[in-house]
Amino acid sequence: MGSRNFVVHVILRMVAIFLVKLMGFFVRIPLFRALGPEGIGLYQMVYAFYGLMLTLITGGIPTALALSTAGDKQHGNRMMRRFSGYFILFGLVFSLLCYLLSDKIAHFMGNRDLEFALRCTAPAIAIVPLLSLLRGYLQGNERHGILAVSELIEQAVRISVLLILVLLWVHYGVSYAVGGAMLGAFSGATLALFFVLVLLNRGTASPKRFVGHKGIPDEMSIFFYASLTISATRLLIPFSDFLDAIIVPKRIQASGLSLVEATSMYGEISGMGSLVVYMPSLLTSAIAFALSTRLTSNWRSNQITAYQKHSILALEIAALWGVGATLIMIFHATDLSLIFYSTTAASKSIQYLCLAPLLCGIREMSTIILWASGQKKAPLIGLVLGISGSVLCNYFLIAIPGLSYTGTAMGILVLEAIAATWNLYMIKKGFSLGLGSILMKCMALTIFVLAEIWLFRIIFSNGDHRSFLQSTGEMTLLFTTVFLYLMYRFNRSRDSIS
């Protein structure tokens, strides 16, 4: 694929992910108004368990399949066919266990109101693993169009069913409404899976059928090694979310608050504030997702210079976008909370988590860079260290009266900071990252954004108060400025990505 086509595919991927994330983001507004902070807290706890189960079933196999297919299409086809049956079997087994043991799982998580929602989660656990596997195969073939459409179908159906069931079932109680929200995941995944299977059966994205290969044991062992290391890394994030869902509400209660208050506070931070601050990272996630196969291909074809230039550009984009997003979170936390939730309840958590877009973007980009060069253990070690620091912050700081908010936010940021720093250290051992140059560009962008804010507020000065239109206009201007600069840097360097 040429550089121009590659840029087109990256933009297509970015637009699709942006639309999917945007749809998921805006559905939280009516969801919050229907469920309230306590309901959002319950929803986050169930979703943390759901994410953990999916990661346990799929592991790193979809990602390993994408990287393997990028290097060898026939090998990827063989692996996809071999693992399809296993994913169906394990999905059904875990789904059945989730349904039968929902009461015990709810008790373990410390909230009996989760039982019905966990039962409603079981159908999605049976369907989504196979869908994830097929998407990994499509990614390896760089079939971004099919991926984009399938994700849009899944999200559109999920949101529609979610809203209908939440509004219908909220009259029976918050726990039933949360269960209805989880059924939306099953509905969306089912239609998306049907769409992908139809195209695969037509031969749209599938190479020739496998008829035999003498080196199957060797390639299987290599594939398993890659998937296990990626699996361990992928598992840590949902595992960390699951730990937070158990530890954070209990430690907040230890500070003197009730179960309802603890669940509400957890919902404000993890379900409202974190949703806003992680929203800008969808751009870096889209770029990282689209670049993963190209980085792997460059490394395997011994195009080291292109691989290094590509890696430096990716980190620069993550850093600059993260700095711009952080500044906007700092100056517009209250405005963002009002825009998306019609309340200032999330403004405090948005300010406390303002560094998340920067740290998360660098962590995701650096993880892809390390994976592409075969260093699959390095991100795993970084996440282990990060989660260890996060757990310590959550356990010791949250229980201190008056530090519940600070401790929870610190736990999230410490994980991201340690993991990102470790990844950069491991990359720097291989080649120079030009961190000084990236730092200078970040400082220049910071000065420019601050000057832009200052000039905007002087021009549209209105005493001590700013109108909603002025705040929205200022945020739009800042995001547009940073985004256009990033597109300029990406387009300028596209010839070095080929």
TrEMBL record:
The chain crosses the membrane at residues 7-27, 47-71, 83-102, 114-134, 146-170, 176-201, 222-249, 269-291, 312-332, 380-400, 406-426, 438-456, 468-488. This is Oligosaccharide flippase family protein. It comes from the Bacteria. Keywords: Cell membrane, Membrane, Transmembrane, Transmembrane helix. It comes from Paenibacillus agricola. It is found in: Cell membrane. It is a multi-pass membrane protein. Its main location: membrane.
